[in-house]
Design a protein that fits this description.
With about 260 residues, the protein is mainly alpha-helical. About 65% of the residues lie in helices and about 0% in strands. The chain is built from ten helices and no strands.
Length: about 260
């Protein structure tokens, strides 16, 4: 059984989408023109995608991101088209309605993504990372980038050290340091492959050994997970201030990103 924090937003999105889907058959019969048919089609699409979003959140987390984007696009398009093609309003009104739809979908998607995101605070998530590391060999070839597996793991370990304030990193004065953009980029938007990183997180990659870094990874995961609830957290060099839960989500996402880089 999924935690209530995931179940509630998933059911809200599914219920909202079902309500929109209920009237599709009648609207399709009444549609008279390309615009009305297009609006009815996008309405049906957000109904279907909304249900699939709920299913993915509960049983197929890896499919959640693409389905959320499709659901949000279909709902926003419907919100923009409906007042124009069904209500006879101007395109200005349609744009305002579309913007309101985008805000609504963004809020609901944000709620679900934050609730469903794996975190280093979860025993199961940490156990899965340790299992994936056991399937990785030091001579594994990367799917992208130029780091070797030992270099990658050293980089991941130093990111964990940085998150606990043990490895200071100079801040990068970028717009993504500030809310809500920092939360969006850190936790929601896809990360490009080969994304630039802080030089402090690359300083040791040529001076490490595989057995040492493998053992260190498990130690750092445990130390991260047992940090006191009231412990202070540093600012991230790129994303600025993050909450305790935010650091846990980011730590998992960063590790997962690099483990997938090496096929595990």
């Amino acid at each position: 059984m999924k935690p209530l924090r995931i179940l509630v937003p998933a059911l809200v999105i599914a219920g909202f989408s079902v309500l929109g889907f209920i009237s599709v058959t009648d609207e399709w019969s009444d549609a008279s023109g390309l615009g009305q048919r297009a609006a009815t089609f996008t309405q049906a699409a957000y109904g279907v995608f909304g249900i699939l979003v709920a299913v993915a959140a509960l049983w197929r987390p890896r499919a959640l991101g693409p389905l959320l984007w499709l659901w949000a696009l279909a709902l926003t398009t419907t919100a923009a088209l409906a007042p124009v093609v069904w209500g006879g309003q101007s395109w200005g009104i349609g744009l305002i309605a579309g913007f309101a739809g985008a805000v609504l979908t963004g809020a609901l998607a944000w709620w679900l993504v934050v609730a469903a995101a794996p975190s280093l605070w979860e025993d199961g998530a940490r156990a899965k990372l340790l299992d994936r590391l056991r399937r990785l060999t030091p001579d594994a070839r990367p799917r992208w980038g130029r780091m070797t597996a030992p270099q990658m793991l050293t980089h991941v370990n130093d990111q964990l050290r940085m998150s606990m304030g043990e490895l200071p990193a100079a801040p990068a004065r970028l717009p993504i340091r500030y809310p809500p953009l920092n939360q969006l980029v850190a936790h929601v938007l896809p990360w490009p492959k080969g994304l630039p990183t802080s030089p402090e997180l690359l300083a040791r990659i040529d001076r490490s050994t595989w057995p040492t870094e493998v053992a260190t990874f498990g130690t750092l995961l445990h130390r991260f997970a047992t940090r006191p609830v009231g412990a202070a957290w540093p600012e991230h060099p790129a994303f600025g201030r993050l909450s305790r839960r935010g650091w846990g989500m980011l730590g998992y996402r960063h590790t997962d990103h690099h483990f997938r880089q090496f096929g595990v």
